[in-house]
Amino acid sequence: MKRFYIIILLQLLMWQFLSFSSQAQIVSRTIHIEKAGTLSTLIPSKDKYLIEELILSGNINGTDIKYIREMTGGGEYCDMTNGKLIKLNLEDVNIVAGGIPYIWQKYDRTENNCVSDYMFYDLEQLNSIILPRNTIAIGVGTFNLCTGLKSVNIGNNVSTICRDAFSYCPELTTVTIPESVTSIGESAFWHCSSLTSITIPNRVISIGARALEDCTRLSEIHCKAQNPPTINSSVFDKSKNRLKLYVPKGSSKAYKNAEGWKEFTNIIEE
Fold first, then answer.
1. How many CA atoms lie within 13 A of 48 on its CB side?
2. For 17-59, what is each residue's pLDDT tens digit?
3. Residue 225's Cα: distance from chain center in Å?
4. pLDDT-derived band of residue 12, with 50, 70 and 90 as boundaries?
5. Between the CA of residue 42 and those of 22, 90, 249, 261, what are the distances in Å?
């Protein structure tokens, strides 16, 4: 009888080991989506909440975004799921119009080549993301309240970063704004308290109010525009005397006379 129980115990331990091993192997997946809206058919339901890193290519729409949100721990109404996805690579993806609502049944339509409004809103465990290389705009509140987001690769075709796009991402330590960007919206990087430096490309002509306010660790701003972008005094924290503003050679005088920039006490040409 004792031998019988030992055999049963060993079988149970072996079953648990095999179960754990099969789950541990399902960490990263690379998937090509030929037809938008079909991601859920390419990932078995038993694997949906086990994947931690997802690399996609092909075409996706709102239906796929909703599925990705669920895999990343966020439901349609910002309720929680058991998803474990933390790293998302969409570099070779085409976002196309259509599909079902991905959040709140209001912000329900993806647009061609756009990371639409609130697409990744409140996905607290999302750690890093690479956006599609053909993205032309980042919508309103796209990454708002992504409190675990540490890095984002925006891509070189984005022209507009809308209001609240990255607001309240307190763990965001690095972000590269591509040369293609011409406008940065209101509160775009508000309360990104881990950012230490940021580079504003030379094509940027306007920066919205509070865009970099409450970025408490920000110490350096590199502005590549020869002509100071249009801003108001609330874009940055009030304590501009602690910030170093780096500007192109020969442009410091223009910045010292420009509204919103002239309050900086440490303007350095580079």
1. 18
2. 544 444 445 589 999 999 999 999 999 888 999 999 999 999 9
3. 25
4. low
5. 18, 16, 53, 51
CB 52 within 8 A of CB 85: yes
Q: What is the pLDDT of residues 119-151, one digit of tens each?
A: 999 999 999 999 999 999 999 999 999 999 999
Q: What whole-number percentage of the chain has pLDDT above 90?
A: 77
The token pair at 182 is 């011409």
Q: How many residues does the chain have?
A: 270
Amino acid identity of residue 98, one-letter, is G
CA distances 187 to 70, 162, 165, 195, 253, Å, are 27, 9, 8, 14, 27
- C-alpha 219/C-alpha 198 separation (Å) is 9
Q: Where are the domains of the chain?
A: 26-98
How far does CA 209 lie from the centroid of its chain?
Answer: 21
